[in-house]
Amino acid sequence: MGEEVDSIMNTEDTLTHKENGDGDTPESNVKYYTLEEIQAHNLSRDTWLIIHDKVYDITSFLEEHPGGEEVLLEQAGSDATESFEDVGHSTDAREMLEQYYVGEVHMKDRKKEAKKDVYISTSNDSGSASWTTWLIPAVAAAVVGVMYRFYLMEHKSS
């Protein structure tokens, strides 16, 4: 009977940790870090970055980075998601990043996703815009060409 109580207590503790997003849980093995903890790792001998709410310790990669260590140190201890995506890293670079993974940003410190506006077209004639985009410039070019021909003919005859 005592073992059942211990089992129930351990299950309740695990569920509480999961709901609160606290530290490691035996089932998830994910370590959560607050922004304050991450910001403390902003030195060349201890460099952490946040990319897509995941935390990476890239200290050992600084000298290997093809863009130089300075660009990484500028982002040290902060969210580098935008910079990482702006550069357009390859699939290999994204896979390499996984070896430096140390945890995730704590749920309370994550940025809220901005609502993205979705525009829905209610037009039934979806192909109408495509032919007009090339037809109008083509007609304009033809008119200019004809006018140029008449202009040249007029100057040759005089």
From TrEMBL:
Top-level taxon of the source organism: Eukaryota
Transmembrane segments: 131-152
A Gene Ontology molecular function term of the record: heme binding
A single cellular component GO annotation: membrane
Keywords, sorted A to Z: Electron transport, Heme, Iron, Membrane, Metal-binding, Transmembrane, Transmembrane helix, Transport
Primary localization class, coarse: membrane
Cellular compartments annotated: Membrane
Residues in Cytochrome b5 heme-binding domain copies: 30-106
Pfam families to which the protein is assigned, alphabetical: Cyt-b5
Region (Disordered): 1-28
InterPro entries cross-referenced by the UniProt entry: Cyt_B5-like_heme/steroid-bd (IPR001199), Cyt_B5-like_heme/steroid_sf (IPR036400), Cyt_B5_heme-BS (IPR018506), Cytochrome_b5 (IPR050668)
Family: Belongs to the cytochrome b5 family.
The protein's name: Cytochrome b5 heme-binding domain-containing protein
Organism of derivation: Alosa alosa (allis shad)
